[in-house]
């Protein structure tokens, strides 16, 4: 074993960073044996140096992250500060000064992944980011290494624990959205400002990363269709149960049937109770992968939290350190396919539409005519009426999102349709 330690700079020492430092210290001997050399925490960049950090030598703490990554003797920079800047500049500076990088920064990778990979390649360094998607679940490495010889057709999963907790609570207890969100906040699953989670910004960033790796194509965050779950109601869950389904916020990345394009989207969807993703409860994550040769695979586990995310970071750290010792680099960006990313209107799936209509003869015929005129075939219809008002629930066969949008727009113009109460996609069948 080499006796000179590999030096690690840690950017950020919050929930995840502090766990990374703790594991590096408590498992130092095991890590050294697995890597082939000791690893040494050489510096920790923070914003509040006066804060007491158990287990971390105060002499390692600095507020000058730039100076830390420029030292020249740093082998690996671990970036867990999040956000776009200064993380982006610090990472590119680290490459330029000889360090490889391990990051958990999904937002940055979804927005500027191509540029970061280019900077890593330019300087012959590694960029690893297993922790950026689905916490402790090994997912990035299986997609870009274990399945590198296969053709991936679809990646569909629950990649945000906060939203899954909320939807699971609504499903199991009948709670409304706000009540379930309040409980998630009280338990620490939701941030004080939950927008990034409940409006699906977090999941969309992860979908961009997954689609890029799965389809060897650059998929930018702006390419991902995003729809939050704040409008999901108890009535939606009741309708889902009538169909033998539940509701999940899904990230779906898929290759077109002809193989000529890809799509990436995040939105709430009804999913059959028989599908493996339907049984994912609480704040857990799970990702379902479909490929030509391997068939169907599912990856499941805790998707957030200090220790689970730190586990993924340390896995990357071990891999990068091994590469440093051997003088090699691991797999970088694979974007050779350069497939176009199709708009949401091209997506084909099934739909569940709930309408508030007048309770009188001929309404169903009018509604059915509108669906037919827009090329959307109806699978089932359920109608309930009382005191001159009625609800009409229509479940369609597979149709394009553009056709469905045109149908809904036309339905809203009917005098007999008082409102479109809910539109939800049906996936996983």
Explain this structure.
This protein is α/β, with parallel strands linked by helices. The chain has 14 helices and 17 strands. It has helices at about 15-25, 30-35, 65-70, 85-95, 105-125, 140-145, 160-175, 175-185, 195-200, 200-215, 235-240, 305-325, 365-375, 400-410, and strands spanning about 5-10, 40-45, 60, 75-80, 100-105, 125-130, 150-160, 225, 245-255, 260-270, 285-290, 295-300, 350-360, 380-385, 390-395, 400, 415-425. Strands 7, 8, 9, 10, 11, 12, 13, 14, 15, 16 and 17 form an 11-stranded mixed sheet that branches. Strand 14 (about 380-385) and strand 15 form a beta hairpin. Helix 1 crosses helix 12, helix 4 (about 85-95) packs parallel to helix 5 (about 105-125) and helix 5 packs parallel to helix 10. The longest helix is centred in the C-terminal third of the chain and has 21 residues, at about 305-325. The radius of gyration is 24 Å and the shape is elongated. The termini are far apart. The model has no long low-confidence stretch (mean pLDDT about 95).
């Amino acid at each position: 074993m080499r006796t000179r330690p590999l030096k690690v700079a840690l950017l950020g020492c919050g929930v995840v960073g502090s766990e990374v430092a703790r594991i590096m210290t408590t498992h130092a001997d095991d890590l050294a044996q697995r890597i082939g050399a000791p690893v040494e925490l050489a510096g920790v960049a923070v914003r509040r140096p006066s804060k007491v950090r158990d287990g971390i030598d105060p002499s390692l703490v600095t507020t000058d992250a730039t100076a830390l990554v420029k030292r020249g003797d740093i082998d690996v920079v671990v970036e867990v500060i999040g956000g776009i800047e200064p993380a982006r500049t610090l990472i590119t500076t680290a490459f330029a000064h000889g360090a490889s990088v391990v990051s958990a920064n999904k937002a940055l990778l979804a927005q500027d992944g191509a540029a970061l990979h280019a900077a890593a390649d330019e300087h012959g360094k590694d960029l690893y980011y297993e922790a950026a998607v689905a916490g402790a679940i090994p997912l990035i490495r299986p997609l870009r290494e274990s399945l590198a010889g296969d053709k991936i057709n679809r990646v569909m999963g629950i990649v945000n624990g906060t939203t899954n907790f909320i939807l699971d609570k609504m499903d199991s207890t009948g709670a409304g959205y706000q009540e379930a969100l309040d409980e998630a906040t009280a338990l620490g699953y939701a941030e004080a400002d939950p927008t990034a989670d409940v409006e699906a910004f977090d999941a969309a960033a992860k979908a961009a990363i997954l689609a890029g790796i799965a389809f060897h194509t650059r998929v930018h965050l702006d390419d991902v269709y995003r729809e939050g779950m704040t409008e999901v109601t108890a009535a939606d869950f009741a309708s889902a149960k009538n169909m033998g389904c539940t509701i999940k916020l899904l990230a779906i990345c898929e290759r077109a049937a002809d193989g000529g394009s890809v799509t990436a989207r995040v939105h709430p969807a009804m999913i059959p109770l028989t599908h493996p993703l339907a049984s994912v409860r609480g704040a857990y994550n799970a990702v379902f992968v479909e490929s030509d040769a391997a068939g169907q695979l599912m990856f499941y586990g805790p998707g957030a939290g200090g220790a689970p995310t730190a586990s993924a970071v340390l896995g990357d750290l071990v891999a990068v350190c091994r590469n440093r010792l051997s003088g090699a680099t691991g797999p970088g960006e694979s974007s050779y396919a350069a497939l176009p990313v199709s708009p949401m209107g091209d997506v084909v799936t099934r739909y569940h539409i709930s309408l508030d209509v007048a309770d009188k003869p001929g309404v169903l015929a009018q509604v059915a005519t509108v669906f037919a005129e827009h090329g959307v075939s109806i699978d089932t219809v359920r109608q309930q009426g009382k005191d001159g008002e009625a609800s009409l629930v229509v479940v369609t066969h597979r149709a394009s999102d553009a056709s469905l949008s045109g149908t809904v727009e036309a339905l809203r113009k009917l005098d007999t349709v008082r409102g479109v109460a809910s539109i939800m996609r049906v996936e996983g069948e």
